[in-house]
């Protein structure tokens, strides 16, 4: 616990140099967990310098040595599983189910990344010149800056950290201020306990106003990996572009489930409840809009509302709870504003809506139109917006009428037609007869439009965290026409 009040830089736990503090608050109880003295630009520079020194030595290690470290990391994660889950519950308001899913997803990323050192393949290409060959090597980019999110803090930070390390890079992590432990400091503990070299993983906890822009424009990191809002991601992209840095941006979503008239209503409703209310809907992939064909609309609404009314909400540490607290009161106020404006515009509240502190009762709206705030904005909370579509064509138009394009879902008994329809939705990911919240460590993850740039996971992460170098090799003397 004492470690989690300090920064982790170059293998050492040290107090931040800023005069500012970050208060780590339990969103359910409202009680302070720890106070962390913030990092400033001096600490940030020290972390990047340490990562720069550590990276070449790590890159030169053998495949067996790197994989040995990753195996030890897996062992340490399993030893610390209960503690990690406990931190996710008390710091991010995760329910026990969500925290367990998150831990397992992060573990899957580590195991997938463990294979990367043996998959760093290059190639040999022929040359147009005699007695020459062209060798293409895949090499690490260097130092990677990772900015973690607060909603799936452990998994989504690990999704960048593990692949970056496995491909030979070092990392500096800036965790989210709402979850400084689970999106940051806990990584210092895990990688230290697993015996990774000093300076390879560094964690700087600081306010965005003090080190946010500096983290991106600092000359050492070659790529900035960020998961979070489109607004912040756009600023990161602008700052990175000015400094000719690469970015991996996984941003907001306004994901739809389209329920066609031939769908199995019971199965679609169950999937929609899970995809909407897991972690209170605070997931970039969560269902934002549920678009239902008018022929089955009323039956679906009745089944969906019946299931929602059975969800237990409240204390996230109670293992029977499915919906816990929203991360902070600012988010609650934002959600209520969109909810109330949409009701004023004609949406009908048919279940829920009660708020106590950061806890919001699962809420269902019908008679929602696609131009209402609750449909146009990313909800990121436990409110389900159900939209009636006249037909399939209108459902697709509604789905695509959004600045976002991250994930989605289609329910139909005709799977082939479901795939054909999925191809018409402008989104990076979509699932037929499943809900939208899916992430597999070996499958490309990312969005279109304002939902981000790049892809995470598997070979796509390898591509993102590495670069290629061409080395031409001449065997024998090459004649030049000027001589």
TrEMBL record:
The name of this protein is: Salicylaldehyde dehydrogenase
Q: Where is the active site?
A: 250
Q: Which superkingdom heads the taxonomic lineage of this protein's source?
A: Bacteria
Q: Any keyword Transport?
A: no
Query: Known PROSITE patterns for this protein?
Result: ALDEHYDE_DEHYDR_CYS (PS00070), ALDEHYDE_DEHYDR_GLU (PS00687)
- Domain (Aldehyde dehydrogenase) spans 16-471
Pathway(s) the chain acts in: Aromatic compound metabolism; naphthalene degradation
Check the record and name the PANTHER family matching this protein: BENZALDEHYDE DEHYDROGENASE YFMT
E.C. numbers? 1.2.1.65
